[in-house]
Task: structure prediction
Amino acid sequence: MGKLAVYKYLSFMVLVITILTTVFIIMGLFGGHSNPATGTALALTVYALPILIIFDFILLLFWLLRRKWHWATIPAVTLLCCIPYIGTLYQLGWFRGSNDSKSGINIATYNVAMFGREINGFKAEDILSMMKSHQVDVLCMQEYMENSGDKVNSANYLNYFTAKATGRGDMMIFSRYPITDSLTIDFGNTNNSGMWADIDVNGKMIRVFNVHLETTGINRTLSRVGKQQANGEIVEKSSVLRLIYGRYTQGMVIRAQQAELVAAEIKKSPHPVIVCGDFNDVPYSYVYRTMKGDLVDGFKECGKGFMYTMREGMKRVRIDYIFHSEALEGVNYYKHDATYSDHLPVFMRIAM
Result:
């Protein structure tokens, strides 16, 4: 086989890979429309989107370097289709004016991981000091723990916030404005749940949702495998992968059901809503689309830079969110690099 034949063969193979990459990216972009309970494979393609988009960019460079302009249009057009998705992860934020002079509230959401199950209350106090420094008016906390040793954390928090609403177990909303009503959204036989609180902001009523959806279960599976290996048991990699896949897909289905339940509550709200929480799912997933509905993704509206809310190694993904009704207006959206939890706190200023 001559050099020309080899070159044509390799070009053909790269073309096939280019087309397949485009197909999988399009599947990923529409994967969020597929309920994991009925279309698991399509729903899973959403999670591969970042890798697929990077690979598509490499393929674009390949065709440009080869001066194959007609083939370069395939990855180029594919990348253009990905712009809305990329916007959920990265925002330039160049041409946005400041509305800081408008009246509004500062809201934060934070999965505090039980304050590390501390017994001295120092971490809970540090988090409160952080909220004060960011002038937070409404704070939604997941994996909240009321008692740190002999200290009652809410008693300390209520020295700054003036009202609180308690959900099921580890869910809490603190507010510097009066809370007139609240409700727990029970997800059934699980540690996760949701809640909402009606808050009177200088005569304007808003309903704030605080949500903690089903976890992925990967850490729990790996911990279980680690204990088995520590006890001298032989665990095959294939069985570990099956366990992870089974637990993750099961979690996807449960999260989808929980998201549908919360979305129904959001639609019933008589007031403009703000939805905060740890969704345990990525942008463009079925959970993301279901929770967002007709709401505005605060980061896409007024965020800047690369947004992720998990701070550990390869897990730097965005799973904590703040959405709001179109009747409200986002001014600023950002995360803070705190080290109190495996999550990062997310802050947003909303004009009213």
